[in-house]
Design a protein that fits this description.
There is one protein chain. By secondary structure, the protein is an alpha/beta fold. The chain is built from 21 helices and 20 strands. The strands form 5 sheets. Strands 2-1-3-4-5-6-7 form a 7-stranded mixed beta sheet, with helices on both faces. A 6-stranded parallel beta sheet has the order 8-11-12-13-14-15. Strands 18-19-20 form a 3-stranded antiparallel beta sheet. It is elongated.
Length: 585
């Protein structure tokens, strides 16, 4: 009996951990082939590939981001190979099981919730042509009607074999994100989250976890993302794992964790700030809302004072990148309340702020009580809200405009100097900048087209000309700095028109070759190398200083020196008058 497990990922770089657990648990009794695709792959191509495997049993791992595409594949496949048993599993089909059996008649079985034991038991019954009533945690049809067997007892995670030792995965470890879990379950009961449904937290064998991590690093894994819902729920466990990863790290590897910031103990942060190499760890922190009344409505316990302490202490340590999540559309969080939540979080000044929209996931408490807050939401995945009693669809559209430019202008870190200036000195708040710019962006149709890097600069300039022309001299100077800092080679055509006199620039570069000491720290280079690898432009301010008031128009020079061998860039600034004075001296 040949078994094939498949899923449609959002992108190729993502790997499906669930399929590998099923394969590891089912073998060697039931050999399993894994086939992974993306949601952008044509359905016919996917069906053709799966058909070539000639499976007797074909399983799909289902999530909100792939269920609709998966249904198309199933329906097409069943037409050409109707004798194949189709099995579904995953969070999207583990709730409202009868609904899915009715909606997709091509599906034979649904594995509910944790699947390792249930799936293997099902394969045994299929192979033996036995009945299915004894398979706990299974949904199927009996006499043409949906039947859902009773739940299965929780698996002893210490008995689960490693999902990371398959030979066929090793070659791609360095190219993909490796998802990793050391525990299952969540101690919290947030009404919008599926993780809250499973009571309690269970752990895998710590030594086997460490052995797997060493194996993955030794075989080239570069990004290992822990999917534990609250990695730091046990202080001693988290500290032990952090210490292990620091001591056993390999060059270039990065570990990502979902942590709960308000329970992070100060001594753990102190340890990380002292011992963790910069860039080794990334923290994802679900803030969602800073409105206490909103958090109470979704049964979310959060101490914002302690969360602030953690985020700022980690930030000040400078070792760990932080990614903070927000959810728009929570109960009783209107537009103004969400604006405050956004600004509260942005005030931390951390690297990434993720703005998401509430999804009414099947099985969650919030979906079951949606009528209390007049929620309107999509009938099909991703079940995103369209409005509620305090947030209109018009306001949701406006917040989506914030999301679009937030990703491009903050999270991608193309213009850090510029954006910090605009949100601190020009616009009333960070939210107001992103909202006004996002609305400007959307009215011009830019959210529906692609963008070159230079386009992002010229479009921001266009927005500022209309909304804050007084800020243009400083903003344009900082934008030149942002642009040049991120170039690895001397640009042939920057986004702005370089209007200064070319002969004057040439004289400046020749002077620096002869008198590099006129600019502090400027290296001693030959005139040929300086002319080849240096770029000069005028600015209204010294963009490397804290002085943000232009004294006279374009009095400063910004000099970028590119090192093509190291693919690095050094930035220098000086006023024209000071250069002349030092040269004359």
């Amino acid at each position: 009996m040949k078994t094939v497990l498949s899923t449609l990922n959002a992108k190729y770089i993502h790997t499906c951990l669930a399929l590998r657990y099923l394969k590891a648990y089912s073998e060697p009794e039931f050999p399993v082939v894994i086939r992974e695709f993306t949601i952008k792959d044509p359905s016919l191509n996917i069906v053709t590939d799966l058909y070539s495997q000639d499976p007797d049993v074909l399983g799909f791992s289902c999530y909100i981001w792939n269920i609709e595409e998966t249904i198309k594949v199933i329906q097409m496949f069943k037409k050409i190979k109707p004798e194949t048993k189709i099995v579904l599993g995953g969070p999207e089909v583990s709730y409202d099981v009868a609904h899915w059996l009715d909606r997709i008649p091509e599906v034979d079985f649904i594995v509910v919730n944790e699947g390792e034991e249930t799936f293997k038991h099902l394969l045994t019954q299929i192979q033996n042509n036995a009945g299915y009533e004894s398979v706990a945690g299974l949904g199927f049809r009996k006499d043409g009607k949906p039947k859902i067997n009773g739940p299965r007892e929780k698996l002893d995670l210490k008995t689960v074999p490693s999902p990371f030792r398959f030979e066929e995965d090793i070659a791609s470890l360095s190219k993909r994100i490796t998802y990793f879990e050391t525990s299952r379950g969540c101690p919290y009961s947030c009404a919008f989250c599926l993780s809250s449904i499973e009571v309690g937290v269970r752990y895998f064998d710590p030594q086997l976890v460490k052995d797997d991590l060493i194996f993955l690093m030794d075989n080239g894994a570069k990004i290992i993302k822990f999917v534990d819902r609250t990695f730091n729920i046990r202080r001693d466990y988290a500290l032990d794992m952090f210490s292990f990863l620091i001591e056993n790290r390999r060059p270039g590897v990065v570990f990502q964790f979902e942590i709960t910031a308000d329970i992070m103990r100060p001594e753990v942060i102190e340890y990380l700030n002292e011992h963790a190499p910069k860039g080794l760890f990334r923290f994802e922190i679900g803030v969602q809302s800073t409105n206490d009344a909103v958090n109470e409505l979704v049964q979310r316990r959060q101490n914002f004072e302690k969360l602030t302490r953690t985020v700022t202490t980690v930030r000040d340590g400078g070792k760990i990148v932080q990614h903070l999540d927000l959810i728009a559309g929570l109960p009783e969080e209107d537009y103004n309340s969400f604006r405050k939540t956004f600004n509260d979080v942005f005030a931390f000044g951390i690297e990434e702020v993720q703005l998401g929209f509430l999804k009414m996931l099947r099985g969650t408490g919030l979906r079951l009580t949606a009528e209390k807050h007049d929620y309107v939401y999509m009938d099909h995945s991703p079940y995103e809200i369209l409005g509620n009693n305090v947030l209109t669809f018009d306001e949701i559209i406006r917040i989506k405009q914030v999301e679009d430019v937030l990703e491009k202008y903050w999270n991608d870190h193309r213009m850090d100097h510029t954006v910090k200036y605009l949100i601190q000195h020009v616009f009333e708040s960070p939210f107001d900048f992103f909202q006004e710019f996002g609305t400007y962006w959307e009215t011009r149709g830019w959210s529906r087209i692609g963008h070159q890097l230079e386009d992002l600069f010229t479009r921001l300039i266009g927005f500022l000309r209309e909304s804050a022309p007084e800020a243009l001299p400083v903003a344009e100077s900082l934008m030149k700095l942002d642009y040049l800092e991120r170039q690895q080679f001397k640009p042939r055509k920057p986004w702005w028109e370089n209007t200064q006199n070319k002969e004057e620039n040439s004289r400046i570069l020749s002077m620096l070759a002869q008198f590099p000491e006129v600019i502090d720290g400027f290296p001693s280079l030959s005139e040929k190398d300086i002319h080849k690898h240096a770029f000069v432009t005028e600015t209204a301010i010294d963009p490397l200083s804290d002085e943000l008031q232009p004294h006279q128009e374009n009095d400063y020079l910004l000099i970028a020196l590119f090192d093509p061998k190291q693919q690095s860039t050094k930035i220098f600034t000086a006023s024209k008058s000071s250069l002349q004075t030092k040269r004359d001296a």
